[in-house]
Design goal:
Blueprint lengths: L1 H21 L3 E3 L6 E3 L6 E3 L6 E3 L21 E4 L3 E2 L4 E9 L2 E9 L5 H21 L11 H19 L1
Antiparallel strand pairs: 1-4, 2-3, 5-7, 6-7, 7-8
Length: 166
Amino acid sequence: MKKVVLSSALIVASLIYVYSKSGTSTIAVQVAPTVTVSPTPKTVTLPVTQAPVVSSTPPPPPPAPKKVVAASGYTDGTYTGSVADAYYGNVQVQVTIQSGSITAVDFLQYPSDRSTSRYINGQATPILAQEAIKAQSASVNGVSGASDTSQAFVQSLSSALAQAKA
């Protein structure tokens, strides 16, 4: 009888240890009232325990992110500007706002079907994007030699930033 009780206690202790180390489950061990066992004239009182109750309920989902509107008035997110005509092709940008600031400006479209357009816009697009991030607005200086692309860039970026302020 002692071996059964000791074995049971050892198993319960082992289960508690294993589950406490996993960190993902909750264990609740309930102890029932004591039971008196008397196979002989001697009376032995032993505590009776139940097997551990393991809860596998997943944790609740994290709360939805809150809208952050900074002093700039921009709401965090990614916004796509309208398509603007740059004479030799279209310009469309996508702006990323984090913590109320412009953190990235990506060109989704720009004139690139002619070798001259590819050369000019290969030089102008990174400059325009950097200027917008630096200015934190669509008020940027145009790039010399890429005036049509610069104007279309300002139009597309302005529409994206208007969405970010809405």
